[in-house]
Write a structure and sequence with these properties.
Elements: H1 8-18, H2 37-51, H3 53-56, E1 64-68, H4 70-84, E2 92-96, H5 121-132, E3 159-164, H6 170-182, E4 187-192, H7 199-202, H8 207-224
Parallel strand pairs: 1-2, 2-3, 3-4
Length: 226
């Protein structure tokens, strides 16, 4: 999920540019709160949004969910949970360099040129182990927590995935996009050459960052104006 604390300007831009309501969820964090705490928090927020749509001026047929990094991984889990629980309809999911697979950097080696900046294999093992309450890459990991372990991706909302080519998550994001397409989910994938994890936040005025941001903003606007 996008953070209102870290980047309120971005949420304001999304609201203004799309004339929409933006809800940012202050979900519980690991390791103090392990799975499924965060998922239940954001699912409850989604249900609250649907149930209060009239008062908030929200069109329930055009609810989009989005996030970056670990937040984007939670968004992917949320979309799967909403489908499986027959919960609120999600019209679009925006996943920016999403953290989707606990096996990356643990039971599956990272690509040699990936994950050297910002988020490393060691960071990934620590982050996933904190959320799961067990070592990342374990056989007993609950699939509901790890989007890449979900066996069925059919029926998920149209999806935008963006990442840098030397991001630790690039390979798992590409694989997830391919599986979505195989499941007949409308999917847009953008891989930015030479970009590392969170590059658009670190250097927002760089040309590649501006192009990246313009791309996902355009995808979001298309989804909300259909």
């Amino acid at each position: 999920m996008f953070s209102a604390d870290r980047n309120p300007k971005l949420l304001q831009e999304i609201a203004i540019e799309n004339d929409c309501v933006v809800v940012a969820v202050d979900y519980r964090l690991a390791p103090e709160a392990r799975f499924p705490a965060a998922l239940e928090d954001i699912y409850s927020a989604l249900c609250w949004l649907r149930d209060n749509a009239d008062a908030l001026g929200v069109d329930v047929s055009r609810i989009a969910v989005g996030g970056e990094s670990a937040g984007a991984g939670h968004v992917a889990s949320l979309s799967i949970a909403a489908r499986d629980r027959r919960g609120p309809h999600i019209a679009f999911q925006l996943l920016l360099y999403p953290m989707l697979d606990d096996r990356t950097g643990s039971s599956r080696p990272a690509a040699p040129n990936a994950g050297r900046f910002i988020w490393t294999p060691a960071s990934n093992r620590f982050g996933w182990s904190s959320l799961l309450g067990m070592p990342a890459g374990s056989d007993a990991v609950p699939a509901q927590c790890v989007p890449a372990r979900a066996t069925n991706l059919a029926g998920l909302p149209p999806t935008y995935i963006g990442a840098g080519s030397i991001d630790l998550f690039a390979r798992e994001d590409i694989e997830f996009a391919g599986r979505l397409m195989d499941a007949a989910v409308p999917t847009e994938l953008l891989i930015v050459p030479g970009a590392y994890h969170g590059f658009d936040l670190a250097v927002p005025d760089a040309a590649i960052s501006r192009r990246f941001t313009a791309s996902w903003k355009a995808a979001l606007k298309r989804a909300l104006t259909r």
